[in-house]
Amino acid sequence: MNPQLQYQIEQFLYAKSALCDAQDWDAYLELFDEQCEYHLPQWESEHEYTKDPKRGMSLIYYANRSGLEDRVYRIRTGKAASTVPMPRTAHFVDNVRIAELDGGQLEVKANWHTLFCRLGMSDQFYGYVTYHLKPAGESWKITRKHIVLLNDTINSVLDFYHL
Q1: DSSP per residue, 82-132
Q2: Tag placement on the chain: N or C end, fewer CB within 10 Å?
Q3: Longest dimension (CA), the chain
Q4: 106 with 9: CB under 8 angstroms?
Q5: Helix, strand, coil shares of the chain as percentages rounded to 5?
Q6: So what's the pLDDT on residue 61?
Q7: Which pLDDT score, from 0 to 100, does residue 110 have?
Q8: What angle do CA 144, 116, 107 make, to 5 degrees?
Q9: Is the pLDDT of residue 106 over 90?
Q10: Which residues pair with 147 in a beta bridge?
Q11: Which residues span the membrane (predicted)?
């Protein structure tokens, strides 16, 4: 893999994480293509998770960016009681792997770990993620985000900003 491309993609993922940690929702949403699919499947068994969000259960599924936009709207207006107060988060990304897809898109796989604190209590989520990215000027747009949550015994609220 081209080392410069590897560096660019890693910096893109770090910037996305920093925007989420800073709760800069407008800039964060701008990273996602309007038709971006966002999927966090539910585990069916100890080692199998749902593959098709239209046929199986999902913890989060948005067919396009409007689902994320709706969550941000609810956060901003206080209509999501689970986000009052908003948790503080720290996102970590590691083991970034890149493969080329047709049409100039990339498939990017990575491991992730999010630490968060809300109302004085700390917790964490972690797993791995697959992104599909398309070129957008000097940067990229996320056209698909597929997240696998490994610690799926959830003792608190789970939302997009945890992933």
Answers
A1: GGSSPPEEEEEEEEEEEEE-GGG-EEEEEEEEEEEEETTEEEEEEEEEEEE
A2: N
A3: 47
A4: yes
A5: 30, 45, 30
A6: 97
A7: 98
A8: 20
A9: yes
A10: 129
A11: none
The owner of tokens 């910096």 is 11
Cα 163 from Cα 109, distance rounded (Å): 14
Residue whose entry in the numeric block shows the structure tokens 């996602």: 32
User: CB–CB of 29/72 below 8 Å?
Assistant: yes
Can you tell me the distance from the alpha carbon of 65 to that of 42, in angstroms, rounded to the nearest whole number?
A: 20
The single residue listed with the structure tokens 């809300």 is 118
CATH number of 3-162: 3.10.450.50
Q: Mind listing the pLDDT tens digit for each residue in 17-70? A: 999 999 999 999 999 999 999 999 999 999 999 999 999 999 999 999 999 999
Q: What is the DSSP letter of 76?
A: H
Amino acid residing at 132? H
- Which residue, 103, 112, 95, is CA-closest to 141? 103
In whole angstroms, give the CA distance from residue 105 to residue 88: 32
- Who's near 143: CB < 8 A, 6+ residues apart? 33, 35, 36, 37, 105, 132, 133, 134
